[in-house]
Structures are given as C-alpha cells and as structure tokens.
C-alpha cells in the first residue's frame, strides 16, 4: 500500500520558533541559533495510528514581499500550523494576517477550512508569558481549529502538533483528492533557495523534496 504524503506549512512571525519546532520534530534536537533566513522543506516519515506517513514540512521564513511564492506554498499545502510565542502579544496578533491569507488562497467558501492548528510556542518561558492560554483557546474557538501550547526547547507537545494535523487531513471528506500525486511530476525550473546541509537521514532527501513541494513553481530564483 503506498505511503500517504502530506504537505504541511508552518507560518508565524520571525522568532516564534517555527524552525525550532520543525527541527525538534524532524531531528529531535533543539537548535537555539537556527538561521532566521532559511526557508526550506524537511521530510519525516512517521507512524500514526498504525499507518505510515511521509510528511513534507515547509518551514517558512522571510517577509510578505514574496507573496506570490507564499500563495503557491499555501495552494500546495494540506495542513497549516500557525505559530505565535506566548511571550509576545505582537506575534499573536500577526496570525490573523496569515490566517486570512490561507483562507483566501484556499478558497474556503467553496472548499471549507483546511486542516489547521494554532500553536502557542515557548511554553517553557512561563515567567515571560504575556499571552494567556485562554486567549489562545479563544482564538482557536473562533477559527474552529485545534490549539496546543508547545515548547520546542523542551520537546513538549511538538509531535502532537503534526499528529493532530495528519488526523485532521485524514478526516477530510474526500481524502484521496487531498493526497499528493506520485512524485514523478516533472520539475524544470525550481529556482534557488538558501539551504543548509542536513545530515539526519530523515532529511537527506531535502532538496529533492523541495522541488516536489514546489512542483507547480515555474518562476526563477528566490532570495530569502
Ligand atoms: N525558550 C524557548 N526558546 C525558543 C523556543 N523555540 C524557539 N526558541 C528560541 O527562539 C528563537 C527563534 O527561534 P526560531 O525557531 O529560529 O524562530 P523562527 O524565526 O520562527 O523560525 C531562537 O533563539 C530559539 O532558540 C522554545 O520553545 N522555548
Ligand atoms: Mg526560522
């Protein structure tokens, strides 16, 4: 039976811990100084509810200047993680913009809301908390999505974020049409993206996956 491939995008303001969450999930390590300009796709194969899944996770970086690119990411994505830091109200407020963008690109009036999870990261920094758990919960209720507080540093509830999204994707009515197509789709020009050598075996297909994630991309170089 073919393994299901799901594409997941992580959005949120700079510094909230998107890369740390990704690294903690994919490689099981906390990277306190991950380059803030790197935007790339990472792969992890996981077993959830006795089924194997290949997850492609887009760790976004940078600004709204790359809006056309972003819209392509969103279009190809099947599940979305919206991250703020519990230590910054501004990062919480910023999420509405990302949410609206996703809803617009996904044409939710026709398709319904895509699988989505709201994440309040840095839960280990309780002393610096300025966004209450109930504030996050209220936003999740408004958006009708799930909510988790995580600590990428302590590996707290990190895996649950991705497991929850996979389960949400599985619950979609017409799941077959939401699955990725086989990976022999042709890629002519995928552009250049800042990359870093990832040594973990789970990430060794990274550049190939990057192409796959952006299989619809026709334009040229991306500077991040
Ligand atoms: N205490 C704490 N620091 C974190 C956590 N996640 C990320 N950080 C720190 O926050 C900063 C930004 O993290 P990064 O993952 O690069 O953020 P990104 O810009 O959203 O990708 C780094 O200095 C990380 O060490 C966390 O869960 N707890
Ligand atoms: Mg980052």
UniProtKB/TrEMBL annotation:
<keyword id="KW-1003">Cell membrane</keyword>
<dbReference type="GO" id="GO:0005525">
    <property type="term" value="F:GTP binding"/>
</dbReference>
<keyword id="KW-0378">Hydrolase</keyword>
<dbReference type="GO" id="GO:0007165">
    <property type="term" value="P:signal transduction"/>
</dbReference>
<feature type="region of interest" description="Disordered">
    <location>
        <begin position="199"/>
        <end position="224"/>
    </location>
</feature>
<keyword id="KW-0472">Membrane</keyword>
<dbReference type="InterPro" id="IPR005225">
    <property type="entry name" value="Small_GTP-bd"/>
</dbReference>
<dbReference type="InterPro" id="IPR001806">
    <property type="entry name" value="Small_GTPase"/>
</dbReference>
<keyword id="KW-0547">Nucleotide-binding</keyword>
<dbReference type="Pfam" id="PF00071">
    <property type="entry name" value="Ras"/>
</dbReference>
<dbReference type="InterPro" id="IPR027417">
    <property type="entry name" value="P-loop_NTPase"/>
</dbReference>
<dbReference type="InterPro" id="IPR020849">
    <property type="entry name" value="Small_GTPase_Ras-type"/>
</dbReference>
<keyword id="KW-0342">GTP-binding</keyword>
<dbReference type="GO" id="GO:0005886">
    <property type="term" value="C:plasma membrane"/>
</dbReference>
<protein>
    <recommendedName>
        <fullName>small monomeric GTPase</fullName>
        <ecNumber>3.6.5.2</ecNumber>
    </recommendedName>
</protein>
<feature type="compositionally biased region" description="Basic residues">
    <location>
        <begin position="203"/>
        <end position="217"/>
    </location>
</feature>
<dbReference type="GO" id="GO:0003925">
    <property type="term" value="F:G protein activity"/>
</dbReference>
